[in-house]
Design goal:
- This protein is α/β, with parallel strands linked by helices and 425 residues long.
- It is built from 19 helices and 5 strands.
- Helix 1 packs across helix 19 and helix 15 packs parallel to helix 16.
- The protein is elongated and about 90 Å long.
- 27% of the residues are buried.
Length: 425
């Protein structure tokens, strides 16, 4: 008899685990669905499928509640019988039927509707991609003209400056190679992931707000901040950068000591801006000549953090109409307080500047940037991106026969579990 009770207890425990798993899966689906009205506001088919999903979820919750209410009622009515092993065994068998018997059909319907939603999303994205290609072709004409003007401007001012002078300033500033970081991160981005941030109201409102120079993007380790930061850089480069709008960026890196130095951060940013605008270059060159009469001394000593920070606004005088600066993983600088103070000082002293900073959660950074717009990346924010990647990887492995999954419900269960257990990482 004890063996039977233990077996029933085991089944009872597994039953509740399955109920809990189902609730987690529904929560994940809801987090994915909440973005769809914003992404596809005019898709009536998706709206219909979403209503069906909500109805199925409501049905599951109602049925689950009924099971617990029924169990409570039976326990109260059969209290005396339930205290014996036989009574308890009978009661549990009456109330706790196998999960698949009670909820298997509901779960199957939910999986089927979510599969329809995924198919409809793919179809809608293809339709939008076609429209975007037409729009992109039109934008490409404008973009090409803009870049032609920028290149012409660059050639014009570079022709006025000797190559040796440019090399001298670059050598003096001693910038870090951050292009390699950006290129690597761009390759790591999958499809349209990260678009949720580019489209979110917090980021777009900040871009339009002339009173807020700083924006802080923060999250747990492994949330994808660096790839997202690279996505922002590409977005700003495509949408804003021109001969009148400057863009500079830096990737702090705990694996590279040079990219942990606050003075290197500012020197690299200044170097990028000086190669985009002749006025900035001339201001830097003038400062160089005033500070260092002896070139041999200058070659041995790049400008200090304080020197660049205190003159940053002067370097940008009479140059760009607007400047964007993006700094990733500022928490990986070895002197965090110095770089934070420098960023704040530049934000306060330079007009028409927008600085986006990403980092892990950090009390010191929070204190420094508490008065500025910020966004904390939550698991619910990136779950859609993780799902896109997981589904694409699963489909690729199934197509290449590296993974054999014939049951669509099982494939969706694998996907849901991976996304759920990722917890935003």
């Amino acid at each position: 008899m004890d063996v039977n009770i233990k077996q029933l207890a085991k089944e009872y425990s597994e039953y509740f685990e399955k109920i809990s798993d189902m609730m987690e899966i529904m929560g994940l689906h809801l987090s994915q669905l909440r973005r769809l009205p914003q992404l596809f506001p005019n898709n009536d088919q998706l709206k219909s499928f979403m209503v069906e999903v909500f109805q199925i979820m409501f049905e599951f919750c109602t049925k689950a509640r009924h099971v617990f209410v029924k169990a409570s009622e039976r326990t109260s009515k059969n209290h005396l019988r339930a205290i014996t092993p036989v009574g308890l065994s009978t009661l549990i068998k009456l109330v706790w039927k196998p999960f698949k018997v009670q909820f298997g059909e509901i779960r199957t319907r939910l999986s089927e509707v979510m599969a329809k939603i995924e198919f409809e999303i793919n179809l809608a994205e293809k339709e939008e991609a076609h429209a975007e290609r037409i729009k992109a072709a039109q934008n490409r004409v404008v973009q090409t003209r803009r870049w032609q003007e920028t290149e012409q401007f660059q050639k014009c001012w570079q022709s006025e400056v000797e190559d040796s002078e440019i090399e001298k300033i670059i050598k003096w500033l001693a910038p870090a190679d951050v292009l390699s970081n950006h290129t690597t991160s761009v390759k790591l981005r999958y499809g349209s992931t990260g678009s949720w941030f580019l489209d979110c109201s917090e980021f777009q409102d900040w871009l339009k707000d002339d009173t807020s120079p700083l924006f802080w993007l923060h999250a747990i380790p492994g949330a994808g901040k660096t790839v997202l930061t690279s996505t922002v850089i590409s977005y700003l480069k495509h949408e804003y950068q021109s001969s009148e709008v400057g863009l500079a960026y830096f990737f702090c890196d705990y694996k590279d000591p040079m990219k942990q130095d606050p003075s290197t951060v500012l020197r690299t940013l200044l170097n990028q801006l000086s190669t985009q605008n002749i006025a900035v270059f001339q201001n830097v060159q003038k400062f160089y000549k005033e500070q260092y009469k002896d070139d041999r001394v200058a070659n041995l000593a790049p400008p200090s953090l304080d020197l660049v920070r205190s003159n940053f606004s002067q370097f940008l005088e009479t140059s760009f109409q607007r400047v964007f600066i993006v700094i990733d993983a500022v928490d990986e600088c070895h002197d965090r307080e110095c770089i934070l103070k420098a960023i704040s000082a530049i934000g306060d002293s330079v007009e028409h500047i927008k600085i986006l900073v990403s980092s892990r959660e950090d009390p010191l950074i929070n204190e420094e940037f508490k008065d500025f717009p910020n966004l904390k990346m939550r698991p619910i924010d990136v779950s859609g991106d993780i799902e896109i990647y997981v589904n694409a990887t699963l489909n690729a492995r199934i197509a290449s026969k590296k993974l054999k999954v014939k049951d669509e419900e099982l494939r969706m269960q694998i996907s849901d579990t991976l996304v759920l257990k990722a917890e935003g990482m």
